[in-house]
Amino acid sequence: LGAVTTGWMSVHKSLTSCVGIRISTSSLGDECSMAQVILTFFVAYGIVVGGSLSGGIGAFLTDKPPLLSMAQLADQLKIWGLVGALGGTFDSFLQIEKILMGNLTPVFKQLVMIVVAFLGAHIGTICVQWLIQVRS
Fold first, then answer.
1. CA 115 – CA 59 distance, rounded (Å)
2. Which of 48, 52, 77, 82 yields a CA-CA distance of 20 to 30 A from 115?
3. CA gap 4, 45 in Å, rounded
4. Per residue in 24-45, pLDDT tens?
């Protein structure tokens, strides 16, 4: 347990000093806290996995192949997982405009959130593909 705590503290210190990400589970107001990063990841993941599973049920009820439908839906829902996790607005992309003002911290934080949302949606797609594999 001591090694895990020491390892976590070193990750905390490196993220806080190098990146400026504040690790706090009580402060969701900070746009790039670790809690917000985790939430963004799982929202994107949940949109892809939940939408694919629900679509598979719908395909089954309409006499369409559910596994094929789930694979197609996972690919189609990846972009919506990204958009949904970022809040569905263009605020993330408008932060890039701040590069011209020389303030790179908000831009970096938004890029981290975009990458995390993409990873959540992509890993959700991989999980759905793993789930529907056919054993021969």
1. 31
2. 52
3. 26
4. 444 444 455 888 899 999 999 9
